[in-house]
Q: What sequence folds into this?
């Protein structure tokens, strides 16, 4: 495991009208690793994601990306610094074609969004790179289809491809395999493994098989706090985790 | 499908030619030139002004997903500032049109800064409230003529050559052709600007923002900034439409800035087809013509238009152009 921390938070806190969803969380994500965030429903995983990616303002604490304090930056600003997220519910631009889904991400990366004076032909500059991504994610035959018409698994593949089009250094995946059948889960795992090459990944995931096979390090959250951290074996052996999160010890043993 | 008769081969070629943007703009220009032969020229010009107004509104509602209920403020500001520049400052018509447009754009910057972060019904309410403030400011302002409005705004000359006041006879039709050409060209230019904007990289980003704002932001698209500038553009074009209307009628009145006008433009856009390039213009033509043709019915016109609106919302949600497109799309399959 690499020693440098790329993304971290210190005493991170978020309250919703008296309810503390995240309660003084410390988290360090090491560069180049796949780090999983697990925990029972309501543990605050998605809130942590929303705080880290600046979709929600923090109630307290700080967030650092490399050497920079990003606690007060906007969601759009952190994307520019290489921190890009996906969403729990598959998030694609349904009324754009599959190709345009990718081209708009590439356009954002190139900083060309505000070139309102250019004609649509300016977008052709991104077509080649988009085609490469389409091939990587086995979407090449669907380039002109509207994203809304894709089957669920393909949508998630498109979402991952679009996220990668931003070429993030740190990739935050919110339940990437949620709602998928077994085959799609296996395919997605493979895609994540490939996407993680040369990158850091922080993922929220419920499927423990996925966590076991992908994650280098796991942080267990419960009630907005860190309950345990370590490799899958370490975490699975922790009695606190068994009790609070997994409930049945047998599940861990067979996962 | 393989055994199509030979003569249909010419049709795709014709369709391809017709689909070319330059050809379509040329056809629109021809249709525009023919309009004064069909309807009373001043009504034709009024229709063109409202077509631009509705398209400006649709840029915001159809492509940014923002329902403004205060667009009359921009339309009215454009009309009054045109009148002020032309009558009080004795500016020429083009400079006065520019004044009306810029004033509306500036107002758009103010409205946009306050309202753009609001969503859905809150956005509509904030824009309505701001538009009411503008309305009362126009009632009180010293130069607007209060309830009487600003009357007798001169039309003037363009480049000292083209008299917008006088009438000319073309192909047996006597009309203020110079004025008509100016209005038609500006109306088409406004539409061309909208079309170009939507086809640009910014247009793609705008569609992404409308489709899924959170996702767009997560990819680094500055949703608020994009929406803000689209709002300002929409306000400016609405102001140009209002200024042109004041130019055509020689009158800027409170009805231009009243909330009924904000409602009227929503109607035009919905009946014509929200989110289609030509729908709002078609809706504007239809409603203005209806107002004119049924003027004899007095207050019943409003009832009738209300009924049409209800039928439209219940049965033809996509509006005239939207339904026609869907029908053609279905026929092709």
A:
């Amino acid at each position: 495991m690499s020693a440098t921390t790329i993304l971290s938070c210190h005493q991170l806190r978020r309250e919703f009208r008296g309810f503390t969803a995240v309660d003084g969380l410390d988290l360090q994500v090491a560069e180049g690793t796949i780090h999983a965030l697990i925990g029972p429903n309501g543990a605050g995983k998605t809130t942590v994601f929303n705080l880290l990616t600046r979709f929600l303002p923090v109630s307290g604490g700080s967030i650092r990306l490399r050497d920079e304090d990003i606690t007060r930056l906007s969601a759009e600003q952190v994307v520019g610094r290489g921190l890009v997220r996906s969403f729990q519910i598959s998030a694609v631009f349904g009324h754009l074609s599959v190709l345009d889904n990718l081209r708009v991400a590439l356009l954002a990366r190139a900083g060309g969004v505000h070139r309102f004076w250019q004609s649509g032909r300016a977008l052709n500059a991104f077509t080649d790179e988009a085609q490469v991504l389409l091939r990587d994610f086995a979407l090449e035959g669907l380039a002109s289809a509207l994203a809304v018409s894709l089957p669920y698994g393909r949508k998630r593949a498109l979402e991952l491809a679009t996220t990668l089009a931003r070429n993030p250094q740190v990739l935050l995946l919110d339940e990437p395999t949620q709602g998928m059948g077994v085959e799609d889960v296996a395919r997605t795992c493979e895609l994540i493994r490939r996407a993680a090459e040369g990158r850091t990944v922080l993922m929220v995931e419920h499927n423990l098989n996925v966590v076991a096979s992908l994650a280098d390090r796991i942080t267990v959250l419960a009630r907005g706090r860190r309950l345990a951290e370590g490799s899958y074996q370490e975490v699975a052996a922790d009695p606190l985790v068994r009790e609070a999160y997994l409930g049945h010890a047998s599940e861990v043993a067979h996962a | 499908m393989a055994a199509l008769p030979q003569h249909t081969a010419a049709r795709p070629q014709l369709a391809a030619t017709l689909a070319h943007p330059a050809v379509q703009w040329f056809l629109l220009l021809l249709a525009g030139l023919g309009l004064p032969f069909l309807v009373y020229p001043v009504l034709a010009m009024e229709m063109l002004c409202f077509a631009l107004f509705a398209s400006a509104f649709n840029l915001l509602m159809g492509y940014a997903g923002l329902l403004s209920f205060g667009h009359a403020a921009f339309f009215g500001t454009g009309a009054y500032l045109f009148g002020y520049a032309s009558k009080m400052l004795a500016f020429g018509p083009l400079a006065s049109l520019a004044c009306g447009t810029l004033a509306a754009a500036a107002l758009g910057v103010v409205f946009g800064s306050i309202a753009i972060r609001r969503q859905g019904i809150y956005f509509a309410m904030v824009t309505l409230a701001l538009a009411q403030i503008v309305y009362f400011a126009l009632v009180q302002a010293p130069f607007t003529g209060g309830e009487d409005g600003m009357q007798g705004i001169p039309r003037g000359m363009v480049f000292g050559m083209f008299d917008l006041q006088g009438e000319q006879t073309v192909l047996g039709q006597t009309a203020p052709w110079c004025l008509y050409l100016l209005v038609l060209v500006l109306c088409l230019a406004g539409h061309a600007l909208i079309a170009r904007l939507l086809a640009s990289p910014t247009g793609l980003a705008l569609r992404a923002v409308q489709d899924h704002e959170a996702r767009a932001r997560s990819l680094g698209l500055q949703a608020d900034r994009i929406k803000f500038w689209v709002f300002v553009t929409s306000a400016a074009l609405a102001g140009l439409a209002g200024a042109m209307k004041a130019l055509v009628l020689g009158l800027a009145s409170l009805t231009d800035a009243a909330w009924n006008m904000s409602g009227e433009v929503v109607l035009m856009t919905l009946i014509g087809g929200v989110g289609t390039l030509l729908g709002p213009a078609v809706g504007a033509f239809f409603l203005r013509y209806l107002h004119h043709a049924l003027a004899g019915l007095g207050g019943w016109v409003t009832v009738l238009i209300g009924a049409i609106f209800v039928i439209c919302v219940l049965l033809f949600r996509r509006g005239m152009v939207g339904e026609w497109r869907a029908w053609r799309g279905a026929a092709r399959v």
Remarks:
- Strands of chain A lie at 5-16, 19-30, 34-38, 60-65, 68-69, 83-85, 170-174, 200-204, 217-222, 225-230.
- Chain A is about 35% helix and 25% strand.
- The radius of gyration of chain A is 19 Å.
- Residues 152-165 of chain A form the longest helix (14 residues).
